[in-house]
Design goal:
Rossmann fold; 6-stranded parallel beta sheet; 3-stranded antiparallel beta sheet; 26% helix; 19% strand; globular; binds 6-phosphogluconic acid; 6-phosphogluconolactonase_DevB
């Protein structure tokens, strides 16, 4: 576990992401990445494109969770990523794997199951934001989705963070990753971060405890988010 406390978590994430993608591509891989939603991640996405060593036509992108609203809606994590960097950096549509949108003619459960069938066997990198309640992706404290051991993607109703209907990858999918990088910024995340990193604790209370990279787990925090450690 690596914990980095930095002045600008978004800038650090953006540059670490590009360095890592360039490294993987230098070794001949086409990286498979699960993106997160959230304000800090989106701040980081807007900074991507600085490193000429990354070939953005050779990166496959999935999402760890998505808000189940119509395609193109400003609340969608995929739309936010399109606006922040996908279109600007010319990531080919064939390498972008968005979760289904509301209006797709499937139920939420069918949409989640359909998404699961297109996931890679493992990710090179999973990016995760953390909620003030300790949620990651759309896995919320006390929710039954935390106990899922078979399905790789699940439907979520009644999310405490709006909008209420979502699709989320589960722990089995998120944990099938070499690298898991968390990013958190601000005092509002401090308590959740300290619970996530405490030696003991419950995944049901703090879902962020439930995800670990096979090779490395990295926390990128600003001083406020790290203030309760
Ligand atoms: O779709 C979402 O809402 C997210 O994927 C969610 O898990 C997010 O990453 C955290 O809530 C942190 O979000 P902030 O960075 O905005 O606090």
């Amino acid at each position: 576990m690596i914990v980095e406390v930095v002045d600008d978590a978004a800038a650090t994430l953006a540059s670490a992401l590009e360095t890592h993608l360039a490294h993987l591509q230098g070794g001949g891989r086409s990286p498979r990445v699960a993106l997160t939603g959230g304000t800090i991640a989106n701040d980081a996405y807007r900074l991507l494109g600085a490193d000429p060593g990354v070939d953005w036509s050779r990166v496959d992108l999935w999402w760890g969770d998505e808000r189940f609203v119509p395609e193109g809606h400003a609340d969608r994590n995929d739309q936010q990523a399109r606006d922040a960097f996908l279109d600007r950096l010319g990531v080919p549509a064939s390498r972008v794997h968005p979760m289904p949108a509301h209006g797709c003619s499937q139920s939420l459960a069918e949409a989640a199951d359909g998404y699961a069938t297109g996931l890679p066997a493992e990710f090179d990198l999973v990016l995760l934001g953390v909620g003030p309640d300790g949620h990651v992706a759309s896995l919320f404290p006390g929710f039954a989705q935390l106990d899922e051991t078979q399905r790789l993607a699940v439907e979520v109703f009644g999310s405490p963070k709006p909008p209420p209907e979502r699709i989320s990858l589960t722990f089995p999918a998120l944990n099938a990753a070499d690298q898991v990088w968390f990013v958190a910024s601000g005092e509002g995340k401090a308590e959740a971060v300290s619970r996530a990193l405490a030696p003991e604790g419950s995944v049901h209370q703090t879902p962020a405890r439930g995800v670990r990279g096979r090779v490395e787990t990295r926390w990128i925090l600003d001083p406020a988010a790290a203030s309760h450690l």
